[in-house]
Amino acid sequence: MKIVFVINPVAGNGKAMRKWQRFEKTIHFPFEHVITRFPGHATEIAKTYREDEQHVLLIGFGGDGTLREIAAGAAGAKELIVGSVAAGSGNDFARAYPTFKDAQAIEKFLENPSFKSEDMGEFFNDAACYFVSSSGIGLDAAISIAVNQSPIKKTLNRIGLGKLTYLAYVIKTLMKFERFTLSVESGGGTFIYKNVWLATVNNQPYFGGGMKISPRSKTDDGMLELTVVHQISRLKLLLVFGTVFSGTHTRFKEVSQKSDTEFRLLTDKPVCRHVDGDDAGKSPYNERVVYRISKHDWKTIN
Predict the structure, then answer these.
(1) SS (H, E, C) the chain
(2) Which one of 20, 76, 131, 287 has the fewest CB atoms closer than 10 angstroms to its CB?
(3) Which letter, b or e, does each residue of 15-24 get, where b requires 16 or more Cβ atoms within 10 Å of its Cβ?
(4) Cα–Cα–Cα angle for 176, 180, 185, nearest 5°?
């Protein structure tokens, strides 16, 4: 089995590269490594190994965006297996999928390698967009985008206080966010939600750096879960916010959840959108977007 590390040098505001430089010194087996140079590069790298005649273990050394790109490039390829070393800011991928803690864990895996198939979520706008964890529109996307653009994020991450950036932008964004109306087609019916704060389509429970937004989501059950937070005041939403980390927010009547293989979402205005925490533009005005399970699965270590 060929081992290839895919390192995103800017993940975690440089944390990934620093971690890789230490990690590399502990490796005692043959390997290749590639450094990503631009957004989407990890997908291109993964695709270059699709024609290999042997199994290739692609180990992402970065955050959720890096792993999403690798999985997208590996989707549908029988010989490609995706592993990871958590080295980003949020690391929600590592909360739901197997990950390697050190080089010794990789050696142990190689002694008796096994892997499993996982679902891939997708939606279409001008082109196909893929996600392995979640894609959302609304408040969560606005917060993620603001945090990623924050000039203080790098400084706080360096001293281990990066989560304070997220908390600060939760409060700041919450105060000025304009709610929207959402139409959802699912299971043969149409559902209208007014005064919506966010709508998130999940393939696994976590988003936003450990928030258990969709407790019932499983990565390999062929289903996606939609969570809609609506008709709740700013103050109550702020008070409820802490319960998302335990998943107990689902007991509130203002939190609606559905499970299906496909959702068709339409918003009454352009709204911020994210894919696995990265900026994905805005939902188009008054145009349905299909979120569904992709026909192409991908493989992780088991």
Answers:
(1) CEEEEEECCCHHHHHHHHHHHHHHCCCCCCCEEEECCCCCHHHHHHHCCCCCCCCEEEEEEECHHHHHHHHHHHCCCCCEEEEEEECCCCCCHHHHCCCCCCHHHHHHHHHCCCEEEECCEEEECCCEEEECCEEEEEHHHHHHHHHHCCCCHHHHHHCCCHHHHHHHHHHHHHHHCCCEEEEEEECCEEEEEEEEEEEEEECCCEECCCEECCCCCCCCCCCEEEEEEECCCHHHHHHHHHHHHCCHHHHCCCEEEEEECEEEEEECCCEEEEECCEEEEEECECCCEEEEECCCCEEEEC
(2) 287
(3) bbbebbeebe
(4) 150
Please work out, in degrees rounded to the nearest 5, the angle formed at the alpha carbon of residue 80 by the alpha carbons of 53 and 23: 110
- For residue 143, is pLDDT > 90? no
CB 205 within 8 A of CB 93: no
Contact 203, 260 (CB under 8 A): no
**Distance (Å, whole) CA 40 – CA 68:** 10
Structure tokens of 82?
Answer: 């995706």
Its pTM stands at 0.91
How far apart, in whole angstroms, are the C-alpha atoms of residue 74 and residue 55? 12
Alpha-carbon torsion 240, 244, 248, 249, what sign? positive
The answer to whether 124 and 281 are in contact (CB under 8 A) is: no
280: its two tokens: 């994905």
- Higher pLDDT, residue 124 or 102: 102
Locate 153 and state its tokens.
């994020």
C-alpha count within 13 angstroms, C-beta hemisphere, residue 213: 26
Stretch 96-120: mean pLDDT:
96
User: What pLDDT, on a 0 to 100 scale, did the predictor assign at position 9?
Assistant: 94
| Cα–Cα distance measured from residue 194 to residue 286, given in angstroms and rounded to the nearest whole number | 14
